[in-house]
Design a protein that fits this description.
This protein has 219 residues and is an alpha/beta fold. Helix content is 34%, strand content 17%. The chain is built from seven helices and five strands.
Length: 219
């Protein structure tokens, strides 16, 4: 009734809901209970812990952090306050980012390095992969290309999707910066739709990229 006072008369709402106007006004001016006041104070501390974790802690970890600080509260109470306050932790178990998987119907490319990830000089062996980064706006995907000799990132790209252009952008940055003559590009055998076809344009006279597997990535 309080939330709809601006839209409907109190008398009408009381009649529809079967309550008295006097009872509503008594409730409206009644001071909050001690439990409600304690909930407000606890929610402030919960918000502090949640913000300190960069909004990654869920109810179990917030509860554990408060216990470590000497506060004793029920875990269900913490969960209720976080739910009422719109606080959500980052979860990598359910509803997390999409990962790529190997395409079982496609024959994998030959292994050009035979699990030997050493190199005697720069731009001989590049190693590529994808991972994900939780942010306040959701998960972002990061594709990287590393030089096996220097262990330096020579190309990278970030996006909110796992489409082919993500890994192509990382590869093109590496090729544009290093201009290799003959380099082995090594990745796992996850599949990224369209990347196998699109990657052929990277194999030009200025950068002969030989790929160890289907040119796709997985974290």
């Amino acid at each position: 009734m309080s939330a709809n006072q601006a839209c409907f008369p109190v008398a009408t709402m009381a009649r529809v809901l079967g309550v008295s106007k006097a009872g509503f006004y008594a409730w409206l001016h009644r001071p909050p209970s001690a439990h409600a006041v304690a909930d407000v104070a606890l929610l402030k501390r919960v918000r502090t812990v949640h913000a300190s974790s960069r909004q990654t802690y869920g109810a179990p970890r917030v509860h554990a952090e408060l216990r470590a600080q000497g506060e004793k509260h029920g875990r269900k109470r913490i969960a209720r306050l976080m739910r009422d306050g719109g606080l959500v932790g980052a979860s990598h178990r359910r509803g997390g980012p999409t990962r790529t998987q190997r395409d079982q119907d496609v024959r994998p490319a030959p292994d050009l390095v035979d699990r030997d990830f050493t190199a005697s000089g720069p731009n001989q062996l590049w190693i590529a992969d994808i991972t994900y980064v939780p942010t306040a706006a959701g998960f972002l995907y990061l594709a990287v290309v590393l030089d096996a000799w220097s262990r330096k990132v020579v190309g990278w790209a970030m996006a909110n999707h796992l489409r082919a252009e993500l890994v192509l952008d990382a590869m093109e940055m590496a090729v544009g910066q290093r201009r290799p003559k003959d380099v082995i590009h090594h990745s796992d055998q996850g599949s990224q739709p369209g990347f196998n076809r699109s990657s052929q344009r990277l194999c030009d006279p200025t950068a002969a990229v030989r790929q160890r597997s289907r040119p796709a990535f997985s974290s």
